[in-house]
Amino acid sequence: MTNSSIYENKKAGNVSKDRSYWGDVVHRLRKNRMSMVSLVILVIIIGLCVIIPAVSPYSIEGTNMEKQYRDQAPSSTHLLGTDKIGRDLFTRLFYAGRISLGVALAVVTLECTIGIVLGSLAGFYGGIIDNIVMRVADVFLSFPFMMICITISSVLGNSIPTLILVLALLSWPSIARIVRGQILTLREMEYMEACEALGISDVKRIFKHLLPNVLAYVIVYATLGMASVILTETSLSFLGLGVSPPTPSWGNMIQEARDIIVIKSKWWYWIPPGISIFVSVMCFNILGDGLRDAIDPKMKR
Questions:
Q1: What is the per-residue pLDDT across 197-216, written as a single tens digit (0 to 9) for each?
Q2: Which residues pair with 88 in a beta bridge?
Q3: CA distance 238 to 230
Q4: Which of 103, 221, 225, 256 is the most buried (most CB within 10 A)?
């Protein structure tokens, strides 16, 4: 949100005189019921993923090969049943949520960091720096994303650090383009000319005067990006190229559904992680849309 946009919103009566810009964003977001419901659901999911594995009497890797403990249907002892080697699926479901959500957060943080730095440099300095950064971004965007992820994961191995690094390095061009476009507009405004006349260094101009005005767009991108990364990690883990067993993730838990017998008669293997993925992705998308409308009310109109 640029200074001129904020001024236009104030003229239109969209920004309260008694609230700051970010206070008004929060106020508009709170009026969006679907976004607030999504936020509450996400907080509940994250809270359960943190608490349940910590208080559960069952270990995520603890096995029990006795026949009566394997492939148990949901019961009062095991709320989501057990798998073929006797592990408690309720505990593993929420630990898998830790992994899937943690990977998504790490990827989005790393890709936004790379994209913000490179996009800021390209937009602020222009010229040869802009050409180099944007041509490199074009090269990355020209790759078939999923095929490259599969290839690199196959070559380097399917560890969590490798997965995070691969997804972040392939995803940064999108946010870099957004930041670059905003910086190109903002650097021509009067207050930036005043900064130059006062002799303020380039670093301070970028990080103190330009990036705060781009932060709103980055937050929206990051929120929507969480949903995208969860789906990508799930797909790779389902194919055996993401998070490696015995560490659970929602993707490799659904992997059990490749067996037609499991699909037909052992719903507790794959429906709970499938619902978890669906609800999390839906909530992140709805929250992202709500943030976009709250940050720039003109988009909704």
A1: 777 777 777 777 788 888 88
A2: 82
A3: 12
A4: 103
Provide the residue type at 288 as one letter.
G
Residue 12 has pLDDT above 60, yes or no: no
Average pLDDT score over residue span 64-91:
82
Kindly tell me if the per-residue pLDDT of 278 is higher than 90: yes
Question: Of the candidates 141, 21, 93, 64, which has an alpha carbon nearest to the alpha carbon of residue 256?
Answer: 93
Give the whole-angstrom CA distance, residue 82 versus residue 69: 7
- Helices and strands (H and E) in the chain: how many: 14, 0
Compute CA distances 138 → 59, 123, 141, 181, 224, whole Å. 46, 15, 5, 15, 21
Q: Tell me the C-alpha distance between 77 and 74, whole Å.
A: 8
The encoded tokens of residue 191 equal 């207050």
| The dihedral sign for the CA sequence 167, 172, 173, 174 | positive
Taking the C-alpha atoms of residue 12 and residue 292, their distance in angstroms, rounded to an integer, is 18
CA 180 to chain CA centroid, nearest Å: 21
- pTM, rounded to two decimals: 0.83
Q: Terminus-to-terminus CA distance in the chain, angstroms?
A: 16
